[in-house]
Design a protein that fits this description.
By secondary structure, the protein is an alpha/beta fold. The chain is 43% helix and 15% strand. Strand 5, helix 5 and strand 6 form a beta-alpha-beta unit. The longest helix is centred in the middle third of the chain and has 29 residues. It is globular.
Length: 264
């Protein structure tokens, strides 16, 4: 039999990027499953609304400020989360946004910020929260990637390079953490209906979709719901010890095709 400690009944979790979209849905799903949750984001007031709803339903949740591009903010978040909930057993790294642009037209500072959030931010969380997990010989770290790391999409600026780098980092971590009791995994969603992209100008959104169609990256108009991705994160975390879901890809299901009259 594998020599793993069983999951303790109480597994405190932190979710970075929990103010909206996938992060918010993930915090809700984990809380419903009985995990105490620390919701972290720059928009802490939005996190507090979700945390209050969780507490009203009998769950355990706290909202804390978090800027993953700031090392001091990450340290403060980790310390406050542990003080409020106890030793952290689960980390979900999902902070980030998208600035739609051609790479050669994107402002270099904006490009750098995308990398600092999606890749650098994930590593800052890792550096702060994974070493205590290793000492306790158990834990789950789930990184939210994107299918752009597998099939690159145009007009995503620094987002594609950042997510591609993130997946390389996670693959490396999986080798480095083997045998420690800490599982590093990634969930790779396809197009998802969230707040990201809703602030784009109409002409920008149109150009993005036209380019996706041109390169065969938009086979149908359906998008995932944030809850679909959150369910995948919960499945990764809930996998029985002795097994590990290293990467889970979630794509939107296509609409049903019209019946072929000739088939009758």
């Amino acid at each position: 039999m594998p020599r793993f400690d069983p999951h303790p009944q109480r597994r405190p979790a932190v979710v970075a990027g929990a103010s909206s979209g996938i992060g918010l849905a993930t915090a809700q799903v984990l809380a419903t499953a009985g995990h105490p949750v620390a919701l972290g984001a720059r928009r802490v007031s939005a996190c507090e609304e979700t945390a209050a709803t969780i507490r009203a339903g009998g769950g355990e949740a706290v909202a804390l400020p978090l800027d993953v591009t700031d090392g001091d903010s990450v340290k403060g978040f980790a310390a406050a989360a542990e003080e409020a909930l106890g030793p952290i057993e689960v980390v979900v790294s999902g902070a980030g946004d998208i600035d739609a642009a051609l790479i050669h037209e994107q402002d270099p500072d904006t490009f750098d910020q995308q990398v600092r959030v999606h890749l650098g931010g994930a590593q800052r969380l890792t550096a702060e929260l994974v070493p205590p997990m290793i000492r306790r010989r158990r834990g789950d770290v789930v990184f939210l990637s994107s299918d752009v790391a597998r099939s690159h999409r145009p007009r995503m600026g620094g987002y594609v390079p950042a997510k591609t780098g993130l997946e390389a980092m996670v693959r490396t971590m999986q080798m480095e953490l083997e045998g420690t009791g800490v599982r590093a995994s990634m969930v790779r969603p396809g197009p998802t209906k969230t707040g990201m992209g809703t602030t784009w100008e109409a002409d920008v959104a149109t150009a993005v979709l036209q380019d996706w169609v041109h390169w065969g990256l938009a086979r149908h108009p359906y998008f995932l719901r944030a809850s679909d991705v959150a369910a995948a994160v919960a499945a990764v975390i809930g996998t029985q010890r002795g097994a590990q879901l290293t990467v889970v890809e979630v794509e939107p299901e296509a609409p049903l095709r019209d019946e072929d009259p000739a088939a009758g």
